[in-house]
Design a protein that fits this description.
Helices cover 64% and strands 12% of the residues. The chain is an alpha+beta fold. Among the domains are: 98 residues, Immunoglobulin-like (Sandwich), CATH 2.60.40; 87 residues. Strands 2-1-3-4 form a four-stranded antiparallel sheet. The protein starts with 8 loop residues before the first helix and ends in a 6-residue tail after the last helix.
Length: 283
């Protein structure tokens, strides 16, 4: 079903002026306000001045809007076209919106019909205000959602960068600790090797020269110390199972300090390892 396009005031005036079905040409127009009774607002009578449909439409619309600006609600008007007679030959109604919820005159009269028109006007105003409110709320919600999304995006980037920095710092710390541990182990190994070599110098020098450059007792003592420093707890324990008790008694005092030192080093490493794994009770 086709819906006719709303006719403009200018288009209707053009049709009224050029209506060939009328017996006489159009002689003028009168604008009236409809509020129960009809009140004449403005009129144009054709004469020497030439009027265009655009000029007439602009004039009558301006008169209607000016008349309605202090009236509440929708205001209804009629534009009457005359053709050389007292009675109008054509009529065109149109509406102009006045003030909303303002005190003043209204087009509705004190009758059931006026009350119904007033109720329709109020419903129209309430509906318009509701849609305007909803539009503002949706616009504000869109702005808030957009702002939250941008903030979340920025925060995600900052968190990712911060996490990456923490990971890099942790890796650098682990690498430094590993390097320090390796240097410490290397130092301990090289120190032990140097100490063992120095301990072997007196007996080796005596043996190579065939002379007692170092006292033999001192050389034997350094040799025994060097051998003891190279042994670990398991090797010393196995040595005790191989030697006779009287043989083991001769070197027991010599290895006792070594065993005590090895135990202390082992316990220290265990404490260090436990301390790195977490806190103990008492806190």
């Amino acid at each position: 079903m086709a819906i006719n396009k709303k006719q403009t005031l200018e288009s209707w005036i053009q049709e009224a002026v050029t209506d060939a079905e009328k017996d006489k040409p159009c002689s003028g127009f009168v604008l009236v306000h409809v509020a129960g009774a009809e009140s004449e607002i403005d009129g144009v009578k054709f004469g020497s001045k030439a009027w265009t449909a655009e000029d007439l439409a602009s004039r009558f619309m301006h008169k209607a809007q000016s008349y309605s600006q202090e009236l509440s609600g929708a205001q209804y008007f009629k534009l009457l076209a005359f053709y050389g007679q007292k009675e109008a030959g054509a009529t065109h109604p149109f509406k102009v919106d006045g003030e909303v919820f303002q005190d003043g005159m209204s087009s509705e009269d004190a009758s059931p019909k006026g009350m119904f028109a007033q109720a329709m006007r109020h419903t129209e105003a309430i509906t318009r205000l509701t849609y305007e409110k909803d539009g503002m709320l949706f616009a504000q919600m869109s702005t808030v959602i957009k702002t939250l999304a941008e903030n979340y995006k920025d925060a995600s980037h900052e968190l990712r960068d911060a996490t990456q920095i923490v990971h890099e710092l942790v890796r650098e710390k682990i690498q430094r600790e590993s390097d320090n541990t390796m240097r410490q182990l290397e130092y301990e190994r090289s120190t032990g090797e140097r100490r063992a070599l120095l301990g072997m110098v007196p007996p080796a020098l005596n043996q190579l020269t065939g002379r007692e450059i170092f006292p033999q007792a001192y050389a034997d003592s350094k040799l025994l110390d060097t051998i003891g420093d190279s042994l670990d707890e398991d090797q010393i324990a196995k040595l005790a199972t191989v030697l006779k008790p009287e043989q083991m008694a001769l070197i027991a005092n010599r290895f006792a300090n070594k065993l005590q030192k090895l135990r202390e080093e082992r316990e220290a490493k265990e404490r260090e390892s436990n301390g790195g794994n977490g806190h103990h009770g008492g806190e």
